[in-house]
Amino acid sequence: PPSLLLWRSLTQWLGGMGIIVLSLAILPMLGVGGMQLFKAEVPGPTADRLKPRIQDTAKLLWGVYVLLTVAEVLLLMAGGMSFFDGINHAFTTMATGGFSTRNASIAAYDSAYIDWIVTLFMFLAGVNFSLHYLALRGRIGDFLRNEEFLFYTGLALGGTLLVVLLNMGTIYNGFFDNLRFSAFQVVSIMTATGFSSANFNTWTPFVHFLLLTLMFIGGCTGSTAGGLKVSRIALLSKVIGRELRHSARPRAVVPVRLNGQAVQDRAVQPVLAFVCLAILTNLAASALLCATGLDIISAVSGVTSCMFNVGPGLGSVGPASNYGHLTMLAKWVLIFTMIAGRLEFFSFYVIFSKFLWQQ
Questions:
Q1: For the CA atoms of 286, 287, 292, 295, what is the dihedral angle to 10 degrees?
Q2: Residue 43 has pLDDT above 70, yes or no
Q3: Which of 28, 103, 193, 293 has the greatest count of CB atoms below 10 A from its CB?
Q4: CA-CA distance, 55 to 47, in Å (whole number)?
């Protein structure tokens, strides 16, 4: 019924910005990794530089969140959506949650206009919300000076271009339809929104690999998107580059820089630990799903999708299917990965650590 559809969309919308506010307000006091990287990588849009008080920062971020949501509702209604469908889809787009009021998701509307509007707002939801606030203050140039945003944009554009080329002549003959569906699915998967406008399970195997990779990478720090976060990937790529240079010139002093500022090693270590923990969780959960009889493609993509809260996977858990056919053990494993991934692993695993309870 409409009441439950609105309720689940609203819970996604509240949870989307709620996670950001929780991160800004609580994690710095706990010294959890990830927030240190957030402070180190962005010289301008950090929690303590928007406003001195964390509560004021939270209000600003919520204001941006509400403003973008209202804008999407109006644009979707201009494309023919009802107010009820518009507000539901705006809630779940900005939260990158992906719940729809239709079984066929966004594909049910069969509208290029709606596809492009949703693609745009999914992309915006995957951007650091502090950058949106600064843009509203007239500092649009901060987008071009932020390495994470440039990396994120490059991945979205590059991924879309690759999918368009791979789908041309095999799945879609028309360029504009190809571009529309490819861009939608790349952004939907990368931001962990999970909306579907086409059955990408029928696309080529290399596209499947590309989409699975984008599931891992995710969106920007300080956004509502899932994944490992682009900032962590960008930082690790710079660390690898530094180690390669050290191999050639052992005495060279090569600082790791993001946005022109040096990132200290103590900020790098939690990121390395986070990525390793995510990979180990994925491997263990995928092995358990394979032990229940699920094929490896469905197992790995299903775990990755649930771990980063994407929704659809590949194989038997693709966009035209669901997780209903899985065994009870498999469902409990995926529930575990959904909670662990949404809490960014450390906050979840610390609950089971003896160090927390032995005071």
A1: 60
A2: no
A3: 193
A4: 10
3-state secondary structure 192-206: CCCCCCCCHHHCCHH
Say if residues 309 and 343 touch (Cβ distance below 8 Å). Answer: no
Q: What is the 3-state secondary structure (H, E, C) of 73-121?
A: HHHHHHCCCCHHHHHHHHHHHHCCCCCCCCCCHHHHHCCHHHHHHHHHH
Block residue for tokens 């994120």: 152
Residue 169: band (very low, low, confident or very high) from pLDDT cuts 50, 70, 90:
confident
- For the chain, the C-alpha Rg in angstroms (whole number) is 20
Q: Is the pTM of this model over 0.90?
A: no
Contact 166, 206 (CB under 8 A): yes
Angstrom distance (rounded) from CA 85 to CA 243:
51
Tell me which residue of 98, 321, 112 sits closest to 201, measured CA to CA: 321
Question: Distance of alpha carbon 197 from its chain centroid, rounded?
Answer: 18
Q: What is the distance between the alpha carbons of residues 182 and 198, in angstroms, rounded to a whole number?
A: 9
The confidence band for 26, taking pLDDT boundaries of 50, 70 and 90, is very low
Question: Going along the chain, which residue ranges are E strands?
Answer: 257-258, 261-262
* 3-state secondary structure (DSSP) of residue 221: coil
- State the burial class of residue 141 (Cβ atoms within 10 Å of its Cβ: 0-12, 13-18, 19+): exposed
C-alpha separations of 172 from 164, 166, 194, 196, 314 in Å: 9, 10, 21, 16, 20
Biggest CA-to-CA distance, the chain: 67
